[in-house]
Amino acid sequence: SSGINAEYGGGECVGTYSTCNDLWNTLEKGGFISGDRLWRMPLFKEYGDLLKSATADINNISSAPYGGSITAAKFLQNFVECKSWAHLDIAGVMDNTSSMSYLPKGMSGRPTRSIIEALRLMSLEK
Fold this sequence. Notes:
It is a single chain. By secondary structure, the chain is α+β, with helices and mostly antiparallel strands. The protein has helices at 4-9, 21-34, 45-49, 68-77, 112-125, and strands at 14-18, 38-40, 86-89, 95-96, 106-107.
């Protein structure tokens, strides 16, 4: 959703937003299995307030110079109808530099392996 993830994560972790602890825990386990680090980020109401608009239902950009990745997730939350959801901000991890030695430099596909592992774990629960 934004390059802000690269600023706080430095390509080392996937900024992860989730409204559900169980979903977050499964995604985190999937990341552990795949070798990707996921970092849970806040979805505080105050960040959503930064999207208020006098001329539209909602702005798609924050009124403040901070919290860019968080406000982007809060923007997406306005369009999600299910209670349990997650958004993974891949901006900082999609292009591998040299931090992940098991991946070649360039587009990494991260966190695809984490999502696959999380789905596999979910399938075992049923």
